């Protein structure tokens, strides 16, 4: 048994890998346990690491720093890569309101942390750790630690504050939602229709009865409308065809149009008459609608197509087909000509069988080629992120130059890669499972090492008056910003409760609370709102954690 004792106790590379792996495995297993419908998930790795550190488990400090830093880098970069495609789109009309509210949650909590630091005398590094735990944001903690190391200040104290306040940070948001649901029991969705209608694609039938467009081409008719739409099929004299931009519309033509639900009323005035047929049911057999045309979903897998605009391919003109919808990362997009295609996009193509077979050759549709992630882009992105994070820039009034660090740099590059990589013909596509693997691996390594580092002094900190003070401060930073912004959004702005609850969970980076929000608010509004505000809130937390230390320390 001496060999086993040496493997677990004697500091070496193998011992470090074994210890980190065991902590991660135990933490992930315990994280699946649900209490009251809530589980801590990967965060339990953090607390298992704390116990291990408290019991005297030690690994080589160099290995600890490396694994902790590398895990954080991989996690934040993969996170940026995932949210990048929807990051800038979240600032559209509906998303602006939610992002402004989430910005309020972030700012109020940050200002509270600074004020409480002055009032209570808790050191600023400790307070930033308390803030990170109260808002359940470990990347912000990582950014703060890197800033403290840059300032040559002990960087373990924030981890203690985070560990103490993290559990109540999770529970606090859920408790706030419980109270809000009691206060606003009936407020569901005055704006539900508009919010849902604005982005989701909608299929509707029209009959051309407006004399103003008789004899006009589809292109000329589209210029009369301020809203985007795609005409999938045209019925005339009992025959169905796929219209082109040069097709001339005639009286009593029947059109199958893909648009957004919010634009149906406007397009009804344009075309003349809406047909009362529900084309959005899940059980519609599109291939049975007519005998000549079939509908097939084709996946973009050819690297040459990545980054090209849909209109530039001229598929309709060359092959006589129509692309009606595009699915990307679970979101259904309207197939407009200026849409930039990405690897992994799923295109719904309507046309004759031979034509669709030719389009399939153009787009690829070879799913096996997508299962192997492009690791070259991942490592190049990490290098670029670290380079960006190392660039010092000065802010007036701040003594030291500010750096984005190993948390801020990679997440920004990840967002930019995910959003604009295709325009530079870079293949940044990773399957959802591959991205989850990268994020899970990186976050697990980071939390295991963070817990080991903080566990040495954790319990002696918790079970003293200072620890109780930290708990109270953290709970107030969790609950007060959430309640202030929620009351404003629900009472004054009269927003949908589901969207507000999702926004609060996203602003607090709290997926555990999101699970509860989905239970108490039917529909997908909480999840949509969470995804809308999460990228900006995460980015702000990471940057503000550093700025607070730089400016006030």
Q: Strand pairing plus helix content: what structural class?
A: alpha+beta
Order of helices and strands: HHHHHHHHHEHEEEHEEHEEEHHHHHHHHH
Strand portion: 5-15%
The helix content, as a percent range, equals: 55-70%
End-to-end C-alpha gap? 50 Å
- How many DSSP H or I helices? 21
Report the uncertain regions. 189-198
Oligomer designation: single chain
Average residue-wise pLDDT: 80
Overview of this protein structure:
- It is a single chain.
- The protein contains 21 helices and nine strands.
- The strands form two sheets. A five-stranded antiparallel beta sheet has the order 3-2-4-1-5. It has a four-stranded antiparallel beta sheet with strand order 6-9-7-8, covered by helices on one side.
- The longest helix is centred in the N-terminal third of the chain and has 28 residues, at 93-120.
- Residues 189-198 have low confidence and may be disordered.
- It is α+β, with helices and mostly antiparallel strands.
- Helices cover 58% and strands 9% of the residues.
- The chain starts with a helix and ends with a helix.
- Helix 2 packs across helix 3 (44-54), helix 5 packs across helix 19 (497-507) and helix 18 (465-492) runs antiparallel to helix 19.
């Amino acid at each position: 048994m001496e060999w086993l004792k040496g493997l677990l106790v004697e500091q070496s590379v193998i011992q470090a890998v074994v210890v980190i792996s065991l902590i991660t495995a135990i933490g992930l297993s315990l994280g699946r346990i649900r209490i009251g419908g809530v589980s801590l998930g990967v965060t339990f790795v953090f607390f298992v690491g704390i116990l291990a550190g408290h019991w005297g488990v030690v690994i080589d400090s160099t290995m600890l720093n490396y694994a902790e830093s590398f895990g954080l880098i991989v996690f934040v970069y993969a996170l940026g890569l995932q949210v990048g495609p929807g990051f800038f789109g979240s600032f559209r009309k509906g998303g602006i309101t939610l992002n402004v509210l989430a910005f309020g949650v972030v700012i109020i909590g940050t200002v509270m942390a600074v004020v409480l630091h002055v009032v209570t005398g808790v050191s600023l590094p400790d307070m930033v750790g308390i803030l990170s735990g109260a808002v359940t944001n470990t990347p912000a903690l990582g950014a703060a630690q890197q800033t403290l190391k840059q300032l040559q200040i002990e960087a373990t104290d924030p981890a203690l504050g985070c560990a103490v306040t993290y559990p109540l940070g999770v529970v606090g948001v859920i408790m706030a939602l419980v109270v809000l649901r009691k206060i606003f029991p009936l407020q569901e969705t005055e704006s539900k229709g508009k919010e849902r209608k604005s982005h989701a694609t909608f299929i509707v039938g029209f009959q051309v009865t407006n004399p103003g467009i008789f004899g006009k081409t589809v292109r000329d008719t589209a210029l009369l409308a301020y809203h985007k739409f795609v005409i999938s099929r045209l019925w005339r004299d009992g025959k169905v065809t796929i219209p082109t931009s040069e097709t001339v519309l005639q009286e009593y033509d029947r059109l199958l149009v893909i648009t957004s639900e919010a634009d149906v009323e406007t397009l009804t005035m344009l075309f003349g008459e809406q047909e009362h047929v529900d084309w959005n049911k899940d059980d519609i057999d599109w291939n049975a609608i007519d005998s000549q045309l079939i509908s097939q979903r084709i996946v973009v897998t050819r690297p040459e197509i990545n980054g090209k605009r849909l209109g530039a391919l001229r598929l309709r003109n060359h092959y006589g087909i129509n692309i009606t919808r595009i699915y990307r990362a679970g979101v259904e997009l309207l197939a407009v000509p200026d849409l930039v295609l990405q690897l992994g996009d799923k295109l719904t193509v309507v046309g004759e069988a031979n034509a669709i077979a030719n389009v399939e050759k153009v787009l690829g549709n070879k799913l096996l080629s997508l299962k192997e992630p492009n690791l070259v882009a991942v490592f190049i992105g990490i290098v670029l992120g670290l380079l960006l994070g190392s660039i010092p820039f000065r802010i007036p009034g701040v003594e030291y130059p500010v750096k984005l660090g190993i948390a801020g740099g990679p997440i920004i590059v990840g967002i930019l890669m995910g959003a604009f990589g295709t325009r530079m013909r870079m293949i940044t596509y990773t399957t959802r499972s591959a991205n989850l693997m990268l994020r899970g691996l990186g976050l697990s390594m980071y939390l295991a090492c963070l817990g080991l580092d903080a566990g040495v002094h954790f319990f002696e900190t918790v079970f003293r008056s200072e620890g109780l003070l930290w708990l109270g401060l953290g709970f107030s930073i969790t609950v007060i910003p959430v309640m202030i912004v929620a009351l404003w959004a629900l009472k004054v702005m009269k927003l949908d409760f589901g969207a507000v609850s999702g926004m609060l969970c996203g602003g607090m980076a709290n997926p555990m609370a999101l699970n509860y929000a989905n239970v108490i608010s039917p529909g997908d509004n909480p999840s949509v709102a969470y995804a809308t505000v999460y990228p900006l809130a995460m980015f702000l937390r990471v940057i503000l954690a550093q700025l607070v230390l730089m400016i006030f320390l």
